[in-house]
Design goal:
This protein is α/β, with parallel strands linked by helices. 30% of the residues lie in helices and 23% in strands. It is built from 8 helices and 19 strands. The protein has helices at residues 11-22, 42-47, 60-63, 116-132, 143-155, 176-188, 235-238, 277-295, and strands spanning 4-7, 27-30, 35-37, 57-59, 67-69, 73-76, 80-83, 88-90, 93-96, 101-102, 135-139, 160-165, 192-195, 199-201, 207-210, 215-217, 220-223, 227-228, 262-264. A 5-stranded parallel beta sheet has the order 5-2-1-9-19, covered by helices on one side. α6 links the parallel β12 (160-165) and β13. α1 runs parallel beside α8 (277-295). The longest helix has 19 residues, at 277-295.
Length: 298
């Protein structure tokens, strides 16, 4: 039986493990964390860390039930990988599902905390920072910034909240009606929406500089300006298979271009379109089907 190693337990990685395991595959999962977390529930989890927040993560062993190596992928080779604990793991087939972080608010999406207890403590502390703030600025009016702003307004209606976005409407990747609706709802709830202005959070974490030169101050500043992808583990052996955005190039079967045994799913690949959890899960299911086909010589 092929040795299948999955790197990462985001939406795509976890979906692949569950699907492939049901097909009878023997899987080893490599992830530095000992838990699985639903990334798009993080906004609400931040509002209620001891209630809803605890329902958004579960121990890997309990949730996925596969062999788990608690380490981070450092260097990928054609049939093996070097981990950050200095150990090497071999594979016949590898699934890269290492995900992405939110640019400016790294731990909103992929936590660096390696234990579930540390993650819960981190989110509890962040909740207290938010609860104690009288004013909040959110930079970025894409899906993450809009949802984060909405959660803050819903949970803490008395806070002074400002949402800043660089283009002339919120949620530019969607239809104009959605962005206009979001702006209308926010303004009805007292949110100051600033459009068409690039903003930079200053080092003090409490000051924002607009492109116009205006300076804004708040007790707390969150930045959510798109996703950041770390595929540095590709540099030694597969540097030419990473595009200028850090995405891994894949073929029509979601294999890393030019390879026969390595697949890349979710945020890290160069499949065009929006990077949403639902699409990552669909890719995971398709790759699981492809592995079955390969095993049957198709």
């Amino acid at each position: 039986m092929d040795r299948i190693v999955v790197f990462g337990t985001g939406v795509a990685g976890a979906a692949f493990v569950k699907t492939a395991k049901d097909d009878g595959a023997a899987i080893t999962l490599v992830d530095p964390k000992d838990y699985v977390e639903v990334p798009y529930a993080a906004h609400r989890a931040l509002m209620d860390p001891d209630g809803f927040g605890r329902t958004t993560r579960r121990p890997i062993g309990e949730h996925l039930g596969v062999d788990h190596v608690q380490a981070k992928l450092r260097t990928l080779a054609p049939s093996s990988a070097l981990l950050d604990d200095g150990k090497e793991i071999g594979f016949d087939r590898a699934i890269l599902a290492t995900g992405s972080t939110i640019r400016g608010f790294d731990n909103l999406k992929v936590a660096e905390q390696r234990s579930i207890e540390a993650r819960e403590n981190e989110w509890r502390a962040e909740h207290e920072r938010l609860r104690e703030a009288s004013s909040v600025i959110v930079i970025g009016g894409g899906p993450v910034g809009v949802e984060l702003t909405g959660e803050i307004v819903d949970t803490f209606p008395d806070k002074e909240v400002t949402l800043i976005h660089a283009t002339d409407r919120l949620l530019p990747a969607f239809g104009s009606g959605i962005g206009d609706k979001a702006r209308k709802v926010f303004e009805e709830h007292g949110v100051r929406v600033i459009l068409g202005q690039r903003a930079t959070s200053q080092e003090d974490g409490r000051t924002v500089m607009l492109a116009s030169g205006e300076t804004l101050a708040a007790d707390l500043v969150y930045t959510a300006t798109g996703i950041s992808i770390d595929t540095s583990y590709m540099q030694e052996h597969f540097a030419d298979l990473v595009n200028d955005r850090g995405q891994v190039k894949v073929d029509e079967y979601l294999r890393v271009a030019g390879t026969e045994n390595i697949f890349a799913i979710g945020d890290i690949n160069d499949v065009p379109g929006m990077k949403l959890g639902a699409f990552g899960a669909q890719q995971a299911e398709r790759v699981a089907q492809n592995l079955v086909a390969l095993g049957e010589g198709r």
